[in-house]
Amino acid sequence: MNPQPAARPGPLQPDAVDALLLDTTPYLSCEECFERIDGHVEALLRNDPPDPALDRHLQGCAACDEEARSLAALLSEDGARPTPAG
User: Fold this and answer.
1) Taking the mean position of all CA atoms in its chain, how far away is CA 86?
2) Which residues lie below 8 Å from residue 33, measured CB to CB, with a gap of 6+?
3) I want to staple 55 with a disulfide (CB 3.0 to 4.6 A). Which of 23, 50, 72, 81 is the partner?
4) Quick count: other Cβ atoms within 10 Å of Cβ 5?
């Protein structure tokens, strides 16, 4: 049997390259993000200024950003999905 080599993935899309190169300082771990995400989303829904470190983390972390979006949708009165990371 002659197995076929795996197909090479295509080139990275520009948005994926941007996410990989994003400067996420000040650094905030996912664990720290999850500890602070409730207050951050509540502040966004009140139109308060976002936590800069957490906001930056959400811009570079798809998992945490999705958690924030889901929480915002759950907490918003009209079910809209605000964009926590802008």
Assistant:
1) 10
2) 54, 57, 58, 61, 64
3) 50
4) 5
In three-state form (DSSP H/G/I as H, E/B as E, the rest C), the secondary structure along 1-57 is CCCCCCCCCCCCCHHHHHHHHCCCCCCCCHHHHHHHHHHHHHHHHCCCCCCHHHHHH
CA distances from 21 to 18, 26, 40, 48 (A): 5, 15, 24, 28
Residues 42-75: tens digit of each pLDDT: 898 889 988 888 988 898 889 999 999 999 999 8
The pLDDT value given to residue 71: 92
- Amino acid sitting at position 86: G
